[in-house]
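Dear Dr. H.,

I hope your travels went smoothly. While you were away I took the liberty of generating a structure for the chain from your last submission, since the lab meeting agenda had it listed for discussion. I wanted you to have the full record in hand beforehand rather than looking at slides cold. The sequence, exactly as received, is reproduced here:
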Amino acid sequence: MQVLLIHPPVTKPSEPPAGIALLATALRSHGISCVTVDANREGLLELMGMPCAASDTWTRRAARSVNGAIALLRSPEAWRSFDRYCRAVRDCNRMLAVQGATSGVRLSCGDYRDSRRSPLRSADLRDAAYRYEQNPFFPYFSGRIDPLLQNNPQLIGFSLNFLSQALTAFAMIGFIRSSGYTGRIVLGGGLITSWLRRGVHDNPFPDLVDELIDGPGEQRIVALCGKNFHKMIPVTPDYSGSLDPAQYLSPVLILPYRCSCGCYWSKCSFCPETAEGTPYQPLPPDAVIADLNHLVQTLRPGLIHFLDNALSPLLLHALIDHPPRVPWYGFARITEELTDPDFCTRLRQSGCCMLQLGIESCDDRVLEKLRKGITLDRVERALRALQHAGIAVYAYVLFGTPAETPESARRTLAGIVRMSAAIRFLNLAIFTMPLTATDRKQRAPLFYNADLSLCRDLVHPHGWDRAAIRRFLQREFTSHPAIAPIIRRDPPLFTSNHAPFFCPAWEHQEHT
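The corresponding predicted structure, in token form, is as follows:
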């Protein structure tokens, strides 16, 4: 083994990580041997099954039921009863919460919060590395990694995409260094890219980590192994080994697939991709179709999850012309194509069961200021066309942007109520300003007072602060009788990753 690739806890264990699967393909195609470890899935499942001191009825019941809960989440029974599904998720999370509490950590299937350390402070990440035995995953990773180190890999790569992974990743790095490992350790992934593009110019961890990789890491990691990189299209992700899609907590095999990096629109003023200047790099649609056909034949997935920031109209047309023969979902922009009932019907026939759409606001003035490139009229026409075609909508709404006022927020409330019959799921977020924002009048101190912070707070020009927004969301928005049922039907913790299983298209598939 030359390279060890690790996906650390915690992310939702519903599907294999695409990042290290792509890296594995790149390495192996260059004759470099590697081993991939999804420490997230393995670690979460191990903690769920560990004995615990059950001092209350809920914990004792969850301890008895957790194996059955895991089995349920991996079976078609999960989508046949939303109540049983929710109970299984709660039982799994109860076991994680109990295990995490002994280390002062709030732990769940999708989050990791340490009461003593922040992933946004380099000093806390270093402390997590030096005190690795305090991490709740220590019993797992100490036993899992030590045998792999006996193979003396020349390079160990960690893929970090979320803040919820950072503290455990550094605990694992601390354990590896304490074992005497002197090879190279590198960090890559979305979180590392964000840090590097938002002001972290030097490696804050030189005694622990040798290099932080900006952007897609295939070329750099191949070069670190002493090989000349040759680009391949497509780069088929390798989901073998510990990345076997059958081992995840989902009722069917979910195949994650990325057709592009960056966003083809890349103009939204609030978007981190815009703030970071991420270039748009799509794969050719014909290469995507050929790649998907190969993966569907070999892995037999039950659902395809497109990971793109936005599926381009060109790609949507390619999927219509060459259906992958498997249900699929992903993010899309609300283009004119989606207002065409015939186009949406053909999209549904191609396998599309759900689209994630960024509505953000139902006020045209706010949409214009956000540079969304859409109007409320287009949003309403698209939602009607998608509803008619039987495609579920997972809508994203953003409050507290600089252009929004309490009055425009209430126009958003009215618009969502008006369109509620066509919206299956809702994600509500409050705006935070990217660290690289250029409007100095609206800058404020760091959102978190930390050297690795990614956002600033916003001095809102209309006094529409976060406390006021939260009161509005609680008292007016989420409690509205047309909206409350939408909020309640969102799958707990797994949210959009499991939402396709609870939409009409999936119910129709089940009956046919």
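Two observations you may find useful: The chain is about 40% helix and 15% strand. Confidence is low (pLDDT under 50) at residues 438-442.

With kind regards,
E. W.
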